[in-house]
Specification:
Strand content: 35-45%
Oligomer: single chain
Radius of gyration: 20 Å
Number of domains: 2
Strand order of the largest sheet: 1-2-3-4-5-12-6-11-10-9-8-7
């Protein structure tokens, strides 16, 4: 006779669960070691989510031990003149013997109807699954470019400075917080100052295929700003060993030298606010360095 599995329950991950959840995710994602997950969960511990949303995410528990988990990076983002909640779903894993309970885990994570959910690193074999859960694509691929090769346009005089550099140029307080907080998570945060205005940019240093250094665009006010200031920003990044930039896109970006890769790293969302291209703020790319 096959013995019954212990009772299952789903609940929020608490601080005391962190070591066991790190070990669970290590087993689920063998290409990442325990140290990676301890650091990732440590980054989540530093953040305060919007009221009513989880700090770490949810877990499935059986016999007092986690057998499944989904991490959630919850934040408040600007939509027009208001702040709205957004959650990036990340690192979903359930032990094989408990896979029939996986929908319970997902339903708990997606139960906040006022929240816009994103999945920005879905593996190809999961695309049909998340589309069946009601997610839609908002980014079809990535544009890999060499921004330093862009020629100056419109006579712009541009000064590129680090986010924490003192400047007489007035800047938006919400955007300043984004830049400074992402710098704390290891991102390259900077201002492009032109015409008396400061334009925010955040990039995540990455190694593509484990050895090609690049900078992934995490945040800008508008993709048109990146195109406009690509030359000086690209030279700033190149001096820091990041000549290649990766940008979410739905096609080639006019004015930039690069290649569009359709179907590479598509991004999904579900909820009331369609994310815009050029905004991966407070996602696993930025916070965990995935």
């Amino acid at each position: 006779m096959v013995s019954a599995l212990p009772a299952i329950r789903c609940r929020q991950i608490d601080e005391g669960d962190v070591p066991a959840v790190a070990e669970l995710l290590r087993r689920g994602f063998p290409n990442r070691n325990r140290r990676f997950w301890q650091r990732a969960l440590g980054e989540l511990a530093r953040r305060e989510p919007p009221t009513g949303l989880p700090k770490y995410g949810y877990l499935l528990e059986s016999g007092g031990a986690p057998v499944g988990a989904i991490l959630m990076i919850c934040s408040a983002v600007r939509a027009g003149d208001t702040l709205v909640p957004r959650c990036n779903l990340s690192s979903w894993y359930v032990e094989p013997a408990f896979r029939t309970y996986a929908p319970l885990l997902v339903s708990q994570a997606l139960r906040h109807k006022e929240v816009t959910y994103t999945n920005v690193s879905a593996a190809p074999h999961t695309w049909p699954i998340i589309e069946a859960q009601g997610f839609s694509r908002y980014s079809e691929g990535i544009f890999v470019c060499l921004p330093a090769l862009q020629q100056a346009s419109g006579g712009d005089q541009v000064q590129v400075t680090a986010a924490d550099a003192s400047s007489a140029i007035a800047s938006d307080a919400f955007e300043r917080d984004i830049l400074l907080q992402h710098a704390e998570h290891g991102c390259i945060s900077l201002w492009a100052v032109s015409g008396g205005r400061a334009y925010p940019f955040v990039f995540r240093p990455r190694l593509v295929k484990g050895f090609i250094p690049c900078a992934q665009l995490i945040y800008c006010r508008d993709l048109a700003d990146f195109t406009r200031f690509a030359g000086p920003i690209g030279r700033y990044l190149a001096l820091r060993g990041r000549a290649v930039a990766i940008v979410d896109a739905n096609g080639p970006i006019p004015g930039l030298v690069g290649i569009f890769r359709r179907g590479s790293k598509p991004k999904y969302f579900k909820g009331p606010q369609r994310p815009r291209l050029g905004d991966l703020a407070y996602t696993e790319y930025a916070i965990m360095g995935v």
